[in-house]
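Comment on this:
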Amino acid sequence: MGRLHPELPILGKGPIICQYPADPTVALGYLSLAFLLASSIAGYFSLFYPYQQKSVPRGAFFKSTSFSIFFNIALFTTGLAITLLVWPTVTEQIHLTRNVHHNLEIACPTTMTCLLGGSAFLYLDSSLFWLVALMLARNAQEDYFDEIEENGDSAKAL
């Protein structure tokens, strides 16, 4: 995974023992996962946070088509980013812990670094979609309060 030094296969009479150089990839992968989850959870809860200390029913948000679209895209890209981050991180951890291989035809296995790059790109995309959804949530909240205000004024006129 982006190593400067290749892994060293140690050949014996039976299986191959792979000796991998020291690499922080697994630790950084789990740290990235923690930050991805924290920012996504913060993005989700910020959408439904009370506006000017007045709560809005969740159904009012989803009346806005653009909010619904960006909310679902943000959820999808977050899930895909998590998948593309967990897959190579866990696979690399398995390769490092189970370094004895019985298939003599292949070299020491490593994970694909392109998955981590794709995950980083989707992580950025999901953050931007959460931001757009937050802006649309504020618009939906203002529309909800305007609608309540209009209904209250028309009820007073009757």
